[in-house]
Design a protein that fits this description.
10 helices, mainly alpha
């Protein structure tokens, strides 16, 4: 008969060292995952770096289409013509490598999750990437073209409308992040319902407050013009309603409420 042996320690220090070993192994794994994620971004950046100027020209195309014929953007900084395309390329490299970066996050946290949680988190990560990308595409192909045309149309004849490239980069990144997060609303609604935080009926009741909040958020995030605010607030409200429809179809079933 096999004896059940208990682990004994010769001193409290031995017990403390034994407890620290799992923590050290987790920290080493975390470092390894972070290094892999960083290397993936740098590899993509190295591949894209010869095309930095073309990537920035593509990003600036919506603004250039709104500028008068022959007018170009300005560069008030000495090194801005180099660093701004470099930052744009690095941002694009991060977006391209994002699925692999999120996979490293998933691989680190997956061992500590239950099977039910694993089945829930993987679709959330995948759908989040898709929705964020859709938000950026909507911003680039629709919002930028309409907003820049709108602003250029109101520019007085005595004003040379030629934005600085550094300010343009900051504006573009802010708008990309804002619209990317906005398109995550249906996923957030579904997650809140699946976690039991909010029922379908409760989320229907707070819909008027969501509409008001959407326009408040749009007024804070976007430039101070009505068009850009509406281009952010209206999709936010529509996507919230889409999230409600998803909850009604796939969420937790409770008492039927208003649609």
């Amino acid at each position: 008969m096999a004896d059940n042996k208990k682990l004994t320690y010769e001193s409290p220090e031995d017990e403390e060292v034994d407890r620290e070993q799992p923590l050290m192994s987790h920290l080493l794994e975390l470092r390894s995952r972070l290094v892999r994620a960083a290397v993936s971004v740098l590899v993509v950046f190295a591949v894209l770096s010869p095309f930095m100027k073309h990537i920035f020209d593509l990003l600036s195309q919506p603004l250039m289409a709104a500028l008068p014929q022959g007018v170009k953007m300005l560069s008030t900084g000495v090194v801005a013509p180099f660093f701004v395309p470099l930052k744009v390329t690095l941002f694009l490299a991060f977006l391209i490598a994002l699925p692999y970066v999120l996979y490293q996050v998933w691989a680190f946290i997956a061992p500590g999750l239950y099977k039910r949680e694993k089945r829930l988190i993987f679709p959330i990560l995948a759908s989040s990437i898709v929705m964020f990308a859709l938000g950026m595409l909507y911003c680039y192909f629709i919002v930028f073209r309409m907003v820049f045309m709108f602003i250029a149309g109101f520019s007085p004849e005595s004003v040379n409308f030629a934005p600085d490239i550094d300010a343009y980069f900051s504006f573009v990144i802010t708008m990309f992040v804002a619209f990317g997060i906005t398109f995550e609303v249906p996923i957030v609604v579904m997650v809140l319902n699946r976690m039991g935080v909010a029922s379908y009926e409760r989320m229907c009741k707070i819909r008027p407050y969501v509409i008001v909040g959407a326009f408040v958020v749009a007024a804070i995030v976007t430039p101070p013009d009505v068009m850009s605010q509406c281009l952010l607030a209206v999709p936010l409200v529509v996507l919230y309603q889409v999230g409600l429809w998803c909850v009604k179809l796939f969420g937790k079933k409770e008492d039927s409420g208003e649609s």
